Amino acid sequence: MKFKYVIKRLLIAIPTFFGITFFTYLILSMAGSPLDAYLADPRITVMELERKRNSLGLDQPIFIQYFIWLKNFFNMDLGFSFQSQRPVTQMIFERMGITALLAGSSLILSLLISIPLGIFSASKPNSFRDHASSAFSFILVATPNFFMGLILIYFFAIKLRVLPSGGLFDASGQKNTLMLLKHMILPTLVLSFQQIGSWMRYMRGSMLEVLQEDYITTARAKGLKKKSSLLYTCT
Asked: Which residues make Cβ contacts (< 8 Å) with residue 117, sequence separation at least 6?
């Protein structure tokens, strides 16, 4: 049964991947040409632009361009950055470690906060605490990350000056773990807000669903206290 489910999900994922990547490529190609970056150079000639167009494969139809990009993508060749003149794959791998660290930190923080809040909200459904927790979770989910980031930077980095506004380390050139953790506080908080709201709603719904199961009702009828039933449900 699980094997059939995995095969089914894979069969759905494959056309979804090709559909999303093709339409994304199509929209980006309609937004502008990579050759526009060369137009800022007054020394560029028409012949040089045409040579660049041919070398990049931009003279081919859009379908051919997409399949060329797809082949290069599977070969881990994402081309060069026009801004830094460096391989894009190299730039991605350089930032992959800190990105994974930041994503993992925000996930752990969101779970540590959202699970107790979700249990707290589900302990008394339709009460004031439940409505307040639900409103709080909706606010977190609806607030854009960039807006929350600007607010946190304004208060903690500009007004209070207790946290840095960006970067991994200070401009002094010193690099240590404590400095890295200090720089990660604000981005970790920003990335956690929407996750906290989503996990709170998920935890609340799961708790209410489990609390209505027959074995919980039977245990409560035999004298199991409400707090004990909540702990039993979590385990």
From this structure: 133, 136, 137, 196, 200, 203
Mean pLDDT over the full length of the chain? 81
For residues 168-203, b (16+ Cβ closer than 10 Å) or e, as one string?
eeeeeeeeeeebeeebbebbbbbbbbbbbbebbbeb
pLDDT band at 212 (very low <50, low <70, confident <90, very high): confident
Q: Report which of 24, 18, 31 is spatially closest to residue 74, judged by C-alpha positions.
A: 18
pTM: 0.69
Sequence ranges of the domains in the chain: 2-78, 91-234
Mean pLDDT along residues 198-221: 76
- The CA-atom distances, in angstroms, between 28 and each of 52, 62, 70, 75 are 18, 11, 15, 21
Q: Is the pLDDT of residue 24 over 60?
A: yes
